[in-house]
C-alpha cells in the first residue's frame, strides 16, 4: 500500500517504486493503481550497504575515524551529503566539488568524489 501511495504522490498511477530501507530493497511494480504482488522483487542490498561502502571510500580519500560511533557518523554524512547521480559517466569524468561536513569533535571532513 505504501508503494502505491508513493507513486500517487508523483501524480502517476502506473510505474515502479523502488523502496530502499536500511536492510532490504523492494522494487514494486504498480499498474493502474494496483501493486502486482507476484512481480515484487526483493534485494538484500540497501542503505546499510551504501553506508559501509561510503566508509570505505572516505578511508580511501585518506580519512580515518577514531571513534566507536564511526558507522553512525558515516550514516549521517550519507544522509546529508550523498545523492544519486543522474549521469554517472559525467560524474566520474569530471571533478566533483568537495563539501564540508563538521564532525562531532569539531573537525571538518571534506567529502568529494565519494558523494
Automatic annotation (TrEMBL):
<keyword id="KW-0206">Cytoskeleton</keyword>
<dbReference type="GO" id="GO:0005524">
    <property type="term" value="F:ATP binding"/>
</dbReference>
<keyword id="KW-0963">Cytoplasm</keyword>
<dbReference type="GO" id="GO:0005856">
    <property type="term" value="C:cytoskeleton"/>
</dbReference>
<dbReference type="InterPro" id="IPR043129">
    <property type="entry name" value="ATPase_NBD"/>
</dbReference>
<keyword id="KW-0007">Acetylation</keyword>
<dbReference type="Pfam" id="PF00022">
    <property type="entry name" value="Actin"/>
</dbReference>
<keyword id="KW-0067">ATP-binding</keyword>
<dbReference type="InterPro" id="IPR004000">
    <property type="entry name" value="Actin"/>
</dbReference>
<protein>
    <submittedName>
        <fullName>Actin-like protein 87C</fullName>
    </submittedName>
</protein>
<keyword id="KW-0547">Nucleotide-binding</keyword>
<comment type="similarity">
    <text>Belongs to the actin family. ARP1 subfamily.</text>
</comment>
Amino acid at each position: 500500500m505504501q508503494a502505491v501511495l508513493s507513486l500517487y504522490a508523483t501524480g502517476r498511477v502506473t510505474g515502479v517504486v523502488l523502496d530502499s530501507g536500511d536492510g532490504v530493497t523492494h522494487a514494486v511494480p504498480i499498474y493502474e493503481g494496483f501493486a502486482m504482488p507476484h512481480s515484487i522483487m526483493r534485494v538484500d542490498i540497501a542503505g546499510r550497504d551504501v553506508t559501509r561502502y561510503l566508509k570505505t571510500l572516505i578511508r580511501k580519500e585518506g580519512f580515518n575515524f577514531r571513534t566507536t560511533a564511526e558507522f553512525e557518523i558515516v550514516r549521517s554524512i550519507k544522509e546529508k551529503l550523498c545523492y544519486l547521480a543522474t549521469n554517472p559517466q559525467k560524474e566520474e569524468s569530471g571533478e566533483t566539488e568537495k563539501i564540508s561536513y563538521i564532525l562531532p569533535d569539531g573537525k571538518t571532513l571534506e567529502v568529494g568524489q565519494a558523494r
